[in-house]
Amino acid sequence: MQRNNNHTTIVTIEKVIDETPTVRTLVFSDDVMSNVLPGQFAMVWIPGVNELPMSVMISKESGKAAFTVRKHGPASTGLFNILEGQQIGIRGPYGNSFDLKEGKLLLVGGGTGLVPMMRLLTFVKPADDVTVLIGAKSKDEVFFEDLANNLLENNPHKVIVSTDDGSYGEKGFVTDLVEKLVSKSHFDGVYVCGPEIMMYKTVQSAHSRKMFVQASLERMMKCGVGICGSCCVGEDLVCRDGTVFDGQHLSTNKEFGHFYRNKAGILENY
Amino acid sequence: MQRNNNHTTIVTIEKVIDETPTVRTLVFSDDVMSNVLPGQFAMVWIPGVNELPMSVMISKESGKAAFTVRKHGPASTGLFNILEGQQIGIRGPYGNSFDLKEGKLLLVGGGTGLVPMMRLLTFVKPADDVTVLIGAKSKDEVFFEDLANNLLENNPHKVIVSTDDGSYGEKGFVTDLVEKLVSKSHFDGVYVCGPEIMMYKTVQSAHSRKMFVQASLERMMKCGVGICGSCCVGEDLVCRDGTVFDGQHLSTNKEFGHFYRNKAGILENY
Amino acid sequence: MELSLATSIGQIQLDRPVMLASGILGISLDVFNRLYRSGVGAVVTKSLSTEPWEGYPNPTIFSVKGGGWINAVGLSNPGATNFAKMIEPNQDVPIVVSLVGSIPEDFEMMIKQFENCKVTAYELNLSCPHVAKVGLEVGDDPELVKKIVTTAKNTTDVPIIAKVGLGTTHYLNTVSAAIDSGIDAITAINTVRAMAIDVETQRPILSNKFGGLSGTPIKPIALRCVYEISSKHDIPIIGCGGISTWEDAVEFFLAGASAIQLGSAVGDNWIDVFNDINNGILQYMKRKNYSSIKEMVGLAKKQ
Amino acid sequence: MELSLATSIGQIQLDRPVMLASGILGISLDVFNRLYRSGVGAVVTKSLSTEPWEGYPNPTIFSVKGGGWINAVGLSNPGATNFAKMIEPNQDVPIVVSLVGSIPEDFEMMIKQFENCKVTAYELNLSCPHVAKVGLEVGDDPELVKKIVTTAKNTTDVPIIAKVGLGTTHYLNTVSAAIDSGIDAITAINTVRAMAIDVETQRPILSNKFGGLSGTPIKPIALRCVYEISSKHDIPIIGCGGISTWEDAVEFFLAGASAIQLGSAVGDNWIDVFNDINNGILQYMKRKNYSSIKEMVGLAKKQ
């Protein structure tokens, strides 16, 4: 019988990989989650702690999937602290996925926003010319650079890291790099996931030049299935209508890049 | 989506056929019921009146099924009085079915017990040598004789009617006819449905001569699905384990042919 | 014959009989407009309190294997004042403002926040099964219900609806108390207190342990309550509980409801569910030769 | 490590924790023996009254599209005297005799009929949601519950169980009343009052209009009640309501039940369901290193 994606499945964490001092990847076996589309997410239950939406990370081994989590709040820290052999609950996958174009592609990821980008890389065609931009605050927060290069070993490609403090790769905000690249050459598809301001600027840079651009949005979520309304952005629900939105659509959304809702549902400025 | 056989389906009676002054056949369209196996039954809801188990009658037209009902109690009279264009509810089919042997076959039916016999006739092979016994109290209660002959037109066959008062066909109880036939020649399969005493004697006659015999039992039923227990006969539930039982099995059942349960569940003698 | 989905719940006139139940998607006017375009007759807001509430930590919702959902969102909401400001620009959408509170003055204060808003009705949530002091504890106390309804009625001329549920006293007493105090309509029923335990980690799944069961499991219970209320009282009823198809909606009309609300079905079938149900009701009305919803309200009681 | 499915509900010792709930298949000793061979830990009989009852006309049961059943069989039963005679030959099957009545004397009279029978326990059905005067009207009256339990306890030394349900008063008051009067165990919960209406013929389907909802829909509600009772009282509990898999059974153990009952699952999966659940529980116990049911009872309350 096919699994109902709303039913919580308990999985055991089989491997924990330290990506940076604050970022870990937790690997587990699950056929359904190993086959999600780039942009889709799972609701992840950390028993006794919380439940939070997580983009599903790829794994080298077939039949396995992973979550890459940065610790900041109590929920993500609870997930970060899960040890090998411990159990978590997962439901999903939820949401839509990126519409992958062919040709010259630009992928932009910041922090754990790189997770759907890595999955997207597994779908590129050998002929695609792929540029991956990895934005981080500083050198010790850079991860997935090697992974991106490995995934693209059969493609013409560049993986460029930028750090805000210049401690690694190019110095400056990754969005400045985006602006520079899209002003120089046309991309057939631009894909971004990361902090909202980074996504907003990337969408602006690409969309204003009529390039096809998509962003995978993140919002607080309670249900993941379009009931609670927590994740609304204007009239869009990130869980149901997203997580992936076209730049065309986002350019008409008054909240994207400017406001998010807090736990009480009140709009707050970014 | 396949229909859940426990869910009530509303059908409209399209044709009412008078079989005898007290027996009518009600025809309706329903693919599921048109394809039931001989011995299976439906729970039939007469809105505002009652619900009762009914063996499903065949129809000449494909995609249609029917119920043949004799009026006696309030429930069956309610069904008997249904007019063309009125609606009833059906659920099922429930129960098992006859195990049809090949060769020389004897089918014995009394009253509406003929219904599963008519359906069984639609499954006989052209080479089968089929004898059908129809038992009735008197001439005006005989029905399905022509139908039986029609169904068997490609078979070596006999349709013999016996009436208790001799007003039509042979005179006497159909069970005496059974005893006579099985004492004269071997049947590869004997099938019976009708009043319990008729079934009991038929099973005795055939089983004592080591012939394969099956009877389709009738009991009061409330649920039809093995919950209410109303239809238990010894340790058997007619709705779940039957309606069809082997003579071998019935010969060990202390209640078959002797007792039935009333609405309160108290054993009463036949 | 003109065929119309319009319905009236006492003084409340709606173009379509399918409302969005409280707690669902109800925090943004943009979303309300989208829902209205998708076929809802009215949007019932999240239950608002005098102050903003964050609600409970996740997990706040659980999908039951046998169907339905258990939620303990904990009435998270931006507070009546913030919410009123947010919906002030509303012109088009019939909005029913849901309110929770523990004392009559809470409701008075909140209703006053909406003086400049177009509000179709207020729905007093007297029956949340998973938040203490403002939920069933209120609805389970008929004397308090009387005071709250009386205060609300004295504060505004906008119709007031009471939403009742299965609590620790008889919900029909709550209904009677609300009617005695002049309530305009009853919504029945709220979610039913329930829980889920994970057998692997051996703990309750919801952070609040207990939540409210909604969706298909509670439909037969809700239908019974609507039938019981309409058999006992001459009061407009809005049926709520597990409705996900047009047949469900019609069952509630036949039991005595003039309109219905749904929520869980949005989780299962997304917002297409509203027009699917609208269309199903229309087809049914054509087949049965009805020109208005009203003609079928309460028919099952005549049998 | 020896692995055993045996459980004790206070003084009641059972080889296996899965019981047949009252009302299901319970009118023939032959069937009881068959069920015991099929894996039940004990058979609870149909609820017996002082006189034979025919129950309601059909339809007495309805299969809900969203899962579960609504029944209004109406407590049809052969009466305590006839029934006692029927089970007198019993040697092997643990039989729990379910009783309904309106006054304490009813229960005294009935228990006395079973003096020559091997009875494992009596279960007082205080909560049938579809029969007047002997159902919830009894359970909803804690003073009457006290008198009935006291009388029953004074009539026999066999353990007495009270079966409670969601009525018009708080079921926890019924539980407290039963415990105060010396009850040995609680079965929670009975079916939940509900109804179904056919949209084509526009009438309630059950002849009694109202019935009791059972099966998967009520599992989350029943589980909540078991958890609430076991959190408040130190009394053996039998969980009942919508159990159809070993996971369901384990959820109830974790919530505080020492045994469970099921009925609707027999309609869905026939009597194979008993050994399926027994085997599932055994596998779970192996995996979690438990040697007895007792080790998992109430574990979810510790989280």
From TrEMBL, chains A, B:
<dbReference type="GO" id="GO:0006221">
    <property type="term" value="P:pyrimidine nucleotide biosynthetic process"/>
</dbReference>
<dbReference type="InterPro" id="IPR001433">
    <property type="entry name" value="OxRdtase_FAD/NAD-bd"/>
</dbReference>
<dbReference type="GO" id="GO:0016491">
    <property type="term" value="F:oxidoreductase activity"/>
</dbReference>
<protein>
    <submittedName>
        <fullName>Dihydroorotate dehydrogenase</fullName>
    </submittedName>
</protein>
<dbReference type="InterPro" id="IPR050353">
    <property type="entry name" value="PyrK_electron_transfer"/>
</dbReference>
<dbReference type="Pfam" id="PF10418">
    <property type="entry name" value="DHODB_Fe-S_bind"/>
</dbReference>
<keyword id="KW-0001">2Fe-2S</keyword>
<feature type="binding site">
    <location>
        <position position="239"/>
    </location>
    <ligand>
        <name>[2Fe-2S] cluster</name>
    </ligand>
</feature>
<dbReference type="Pfam" id="PF00175">
    <property type="entry name" value="NAD_binding_1"/>
</dbReference>
<dbReference type="GO" id="GO:0046872">
    <property type="term" value="F:metal ion binding"/>
</dbReference>
<feature type="domain" description="FAD-binding FR-type">
    <location>
        <begin position="6"/>
        <end position="100"/>
    </location>
</feature>
<feature type="binding site">
    <location>
        <position position="228"/>
    </location>
    <ligand>
        <name>[2Fe-2S] cluster</name>
    </ligand>
</feature>
<dbReference type="InterPro" id="IPR017927">
    <property type="entry name" value="FAD-bd_FR_type"/>
</dbReference>
<dbReference type="InterPro" id="IPR017938">
    <property type="entry name" value="Riboflavin_synthase-like_b-brl"/>
</dbReference>
<keyword id="KW-0408">Iron</keyword>
<keyword id="KW-0411">Iron-sulfur</keyword>
<dbReference type="GO" id="GO:0051537">
    <property type="term" value="F:2 iron, 2 sulfur cluster binding"/>
</dbReference>
<feature type="binding site">
    <location>
        <position position="223"/>
    </location>
    <ligand>
        <name>[2Fe-2S] cluster</name>
    </ligand>
</feature>
<dbReference type="InterPro" id="IPR012165">
    <property type="entry name" value="Cyt_c3_hydrogenase_gsu"/>
</dbReference>
<keyword id="KW-0479">Metal-binding</keyword>
<dbReference type="InterPro" id="IPR019480">
    <property type="entry name" value="Dihydroorotate_DH_Fe-S-bd"/>
</dbReference>
<dbReference type="GO" id="GO:0050660">
    <property type="term" value="F:flavin adenine dinucleotide binding"/>
</dbReference>
From TrEMBL, chains C, D:
<keyword id="KW-0288">FMN</keyword>
<dbReference type="InterPro" id="IPR012135">
    <property type="entry name" value="Dihydroorotate_DH_1_2"/>
</dbReference>
<feature type="binding site">
    <location>
        <position position="215"/>
    </location>
    <ligand>
        <name>FMN</name>
    </ligand>
</feature>
<feature type="binding site">
    <location>
        <begin position="241"/>
        <end position="242"/>
    </location>
    <ligand>
        <name>FMN</name>
    </ligand>
</feature>
<dbReference type="GO" id="GO:0044205">
    <property type="term" value="P:'de novo' UMP biosynthetic process"/>
</dbReference>
<dbReference type="InterPro" id="IPR001295">
    <property type="entry name" value="Dihydroorotate_DH_CS"/>
</dbReference>
<comment type="pathway">
    <text>Pyrimidine metabolism; UMP biosynthesis via de novo pathway.</text>
</comment>
<feature type="binding site">
    <location>
        <position position="189"/>
    </location>
    <ligand>
        <name>FMN</name>
    </ligand>
</feature>
<keyword id="KW-0665">Pyrimidine biosynthesis</keyword>
<feature type="binding site">
    <location>
        <begin position="190"/>
        <end position="191"/>
    </location>
    <ligand>
        <name>substrate</name>
    </ligand>
</feature>
<feature type="binding site">
    <location>
        <begin position="263"/>
        <end position="264"/>
    </location>
    <ligand>
        <name>FMN</name>
    </ligand>
</feature>
<dbReference type="InterPro" id="IPR013785">
    <property type="entry name" value="Aldolase_TIM"/>
</dbReference>
<dbReference type="Pfam" id="PF01180">
    <property type="entry name" value="DHO_dh"/>
</dbReference>
<keyword id="KW-0560">Oxidoreductase</keyword>
<dbReference type="GO" id="GO:0005737">
    <property type="term" value="C:cytoplasm"/>
</dbReference>
<keyword id="KW-0963">Cytoplasm</keyword>
<dbReference type="InterPro" id="IPR024920">
    <property type="entry name" value="Dihydroorotate_DH_1"/>
</dbReference>
<protein>
    <recommendedName>
        <fullName>Dihydroorotate dehydrogenase</fullName>
        <ecNumber>1.3.-.-</ecNumber>
    </recommendedName>
</protein>
<feature type="domain" description="Dihydroorotate dehydrogenase catalytic">
    <location>
        <begin position="5"/>
        <end position="285"/>
    </location>
</feature>
<feature type="binding site">
    <location>
        <position position="22"/>
    </location>
    <ligand>
        <name>FMN</name>
    </ligand>
</feature>
<dbReference type="InterPro" id="IPR005720">
    <property type="entry name" value="Dihydroorotate_DH_cat"/>
</dbReference>
<feature type="binding site">
    <location>
        <position position="125"/>
    </location>
    <ligand>
        <name>substrate</name>
    </ligand>
</feature>
